[in-house]
Amino acid sequence: MKFRVLSFLQLALALLPSEAKATRPPLAKTSTIFQLNDNNTWFENLATRSNGEILATRLDSPELWLINPSSRRGRSLVTVPGVLSTIGITEHRPGVFVFGAGNLTVSPLGIEPGSMKLFQLDFHQKRPSIQLITDMPDASLINGITPFSQTEVLVSDINLGVVYKVDVTTGVSDTVLSGPDFAGINGIRVQNGFLYYASTSNETFFRVPIDDNASATGAAEVIATGVPMDDFALTSDGTAYIATMGLNQVVRVDPDGRMSTVAGSVGSLDTAGGTSARFGSSKNDRLVLYVTTNGGTPSPVNGTVTEPAKIVAVKGIS
Length: 318
Hints:
The protein is mainly beta. The chain has one domain (25-315): Neuraminidase, CATH 2.120.10.30. It is built from 1 helix and 27 strands. It has one helix spanning 7-14, and strands at 4-5, 29-35, 43-48, 54-58, 63-68, 73-79, 85-93, 96-102, 104-106, 109-111, 117-122, 129-135, 142-147, 152-157, 162-167, 173-178, 185-191, 194-199, 204-209, 221-225, 232-234, 240-243, 249-253, 259-264, 274-279, 289-293, 310-315. Strands 2-27-26-25 form a 4-stranded antiparallel sheet, with no helix packed on it. The protein has a 4-stranded antiparallel sheet with strand order 3-4-5-6, with no helix packed on it. A hairpin with a 6-residue loop joins strand 11 and strand 12.
């Protein structure tokens, strides 16, 4: 295999570290609900289930992990054949999840060109099963995934700066969004006729109006800028909670663009190397924000400190 250095890593390292350009109200309470045993590990993304469990992907391993926040226990649920890493994940319909995978390395961080794939995980079986949806050989590095229709998801490509629409029943993939405003596109969400997205390279949180084909119907709108951004959770009113990777913080972005830090700090391990965020999906944890981390693997805290990847619960968000 021939691997090349990931451009988004070079970008992430260039952006580190400085305090987020955001106000700092009293921070919410953070607690680690699960942590791996070894350094150089990387939880990349997560999805929450209606029963309270969390599914987490791993950039350093071809596994999906299942974490129970109540018992604070986790285990490898499935190992995906033919890949080295799992990437973005979303619940497409109840009990059915779509996730990306490919051949990446963490130390040093690199990617095998042409290795991207999209899979489905189905819990409607006695044992959860995975199925290949499609190979994506023309993609560079798929990242964020969000539901779009009953049969389609949208998938971002952070290196190519495009968004694909993929039919999960046929595997057919089309490029639907591209251009300078989509450079470094990372996390994505569809809500109320808009695609919300975080651009790592632009350090900007955008939204763009889209139609039923996921084509843009207007210009991308800048909501907030000035913070390196990874993936995020989005509330019904358009408030985003964004993981900032090497800034080691979770930043809240209000619909009017005001930013505030709700958890972590540059010199803290609380949310060190935060990669994604999701609110719980059960009746008991809908107000709990869960954050995946890479433990500072690509950018150590204070330049020297790393830890194993973990899942953090953030409570008391106002």
